[in-house]
Write a structure and sequence with these properties.
about 290 residues, alpha+beta, 5-stranded antiparallel beta sheet, binds flavin-adenine dinucleotide
C-alpha cells in the first residue's frame, strides 16, 4: 500500500483520480484505520489530507463560516465565535467517541464514512451547510443532505474530495441544537440523533426551521414536514405534538442490538421535541 501526503488539494485529487486501483482519502483515520485493520477495505493508495492548509482552517465567509473538511470536532469547540453562532453543530461533533477520538475525527470523515448514524451530519444539515467538493472536473457545492445516498455510498465521483463546509450567515433570533440517544453513557453510536435549527421573530413565532434525523433511515434525513410543524407557531405544545408525529413518520429504521424499529421511531419523536425546545430557548437569547 502506498501512502502520499500532498500539500495541495489539486495534487490530492490528481493522485486519487489517477490511481486505477482503490484509493482512499485518509483524514483522522478513526474509521479508516479500523476498517483497514479488520480487512473491510484493502486500498492500494492512501492520500493523507491533513497537510493541506485549505482543509484545516475555520474562517468567516459571507457572514457565515467555512469549516475545512479536515477540521476536528475538538477544533470546532475551541473556536468561540463558531461555538456561539452554531452551538448545536459544535455539540454534535463533540459527542463523537471520546476526547481522544474528537481530537482526530474530522467533519469530512464523519460525513464521508457514510454512516447513517454519524453525529455531526444532522448538525450540519440542520444548520443548512453546503459541502464544497473538489474533483478532476473542478469544484461544486452540494447541500450536505444530498452527499450521502445510502450506507457507505456517497454522491462523490472518482477523485472527488470534500474540501469544506459552508455554514450560511445566521439570521437574528436563530439557533440550533443536537441531541442523540445512545444505549450507554459513553462511546456508542446513536440509536437516534436529531438536529434542529429554528428562527423566531420578535413576537416569538417560528419563521424558519430545519429538522434533521440520523440513524433512523439509510441516510441522515432532512425532514421538511417536521419543519412545517414548527413554522408559523410559537413552538407550543400542539406544534411539538405535530413535530413528534412528523419525525416519527419520516423514520425507516432497522432493528439492531441498539433498538427495535418501534423503539427508534418512538425515540425520534421524543428527541425531536426536546431538541426543538433547546433550539427555541437558544434562539430567544441569540
Ligand atoms: C472509539 C470510536 C468511537 C466513535 N464514536 C463515534 C460517535 O460517537 N459518533 C460518530 O458519528 N462516529 C463515531 N466514530 C466514528 C469516527 O470517529 C467518525 O466517523 C469520524 O468523524 C471519522 O472521521 P476521520 O477523520 O477519522 O475519518 P477517516 O477515518 O480518516 O475517514 C473515514 C472515511 O471517509 C473518507 N474521507 C475522509 N475525509 C474525506 C474527505 N474530506 N473527502 C472525501 N472522503 C473522505 C475516507 O476515505 C474514509 O473512507 C467512532 C470511532 C471510534 C474509533
Amino acid at each position: 500500500m502506498r501512502y502520499e501526503a500532498p500539500s495541495t488539494i489539486d495534487r490530492a485529487v490528481a493522485l486519487i483520480a489517477g490511481e486505477p486501483g482503490e484509493a482512499r482519502v485518509l483524514a483522522g483515520g478513526t474509521d479508516l484505520l479500523v476498517q483497514l485493520r479488520t480487512d473491510l477495505i484493502d486500498p492500494v493508495l492512501l492520500v493523507d489530507i491533513k497537510g493541506i492548509p485549505e482543509l484545516r482552517e475555520i474562517k468567516e465567509e459571507g457572514g457565515g463560516f467555512r469549516i475545512g473538511a479536515a477540521v476536528t470536532g475538538a477544533e470546532l469547540k475551541e473556536h468561540p465565535k463558531l461555538k456561539s453562532a452554531w452551538p448545536g453543530l459544535v455539540e454534535s461533533a463533540n459527542l463523537i467517541g471520546s476526547t481522544q477520538v474528537q481530537g482526530r475525527a474530522t467533519m469530512g470523515g464523519n460525513l464521508c464514512n457514510g454512516s447513517p448514524a454519524a453525529d455531526s451530519v444532522p448538525g450540519l444539515i440542520a444548520a443548512g451547510a453546503k459541502a464544497s467538493i473538489v474533483g478532476p472536473r473542478g469544484r461544486r457545492d452540494l447541500p450536505v443532505e444530498d452527499v450521502m445516498l445510502a450506507p457507505r455510498r456517497l454522491a462523490l465521483e472518482k477523485g472527488e474530495i470534500v474540501a469544506s463546509f459552508l455554514l450560511p450567515a445566521r439570521p437574528a433570533r436563530t439557533s440550533d441544537a443536537y441531541l442523540r440517544f445512545i444505549p450507554r453513557t459513553e462511546m456508542d453510536i446513536a440509536v437516534v440523533g436529531c438536529g434542529v435549527c429554528l428562527t423566531i421573530d420578535a413576537g416569538g413565532t417560528c419563521t424558519a426551521a430545519r429538522v434533521s434525523l440520523g440513524a433512523v433511515a439509510p441516510r441522515p434525513l432532512l425532514v421538511a414536514d417536521a419543519a412545517r410543524a414548527l413554522i408559523g407557531t410559537k413552538v407550543d405544545a400542539p406544534a411539538l405534538e405535530r413535530l413528534d408525529a412528523a419525525a416519527r413518520a419520516a423514520c425507516q429504521p432497522i432493528d439492531d442490538k441498539r433498538g427495535t424499529k418501534e423503539y427508534r421511531i418512538k425515540v425520534a419523536g421524543v428527541l425531536a421535541r426536546r431538541t426543538a425546545q433547546i433550539a427555541l430557548e437558544r434562539a430567544r437569547k441569540a
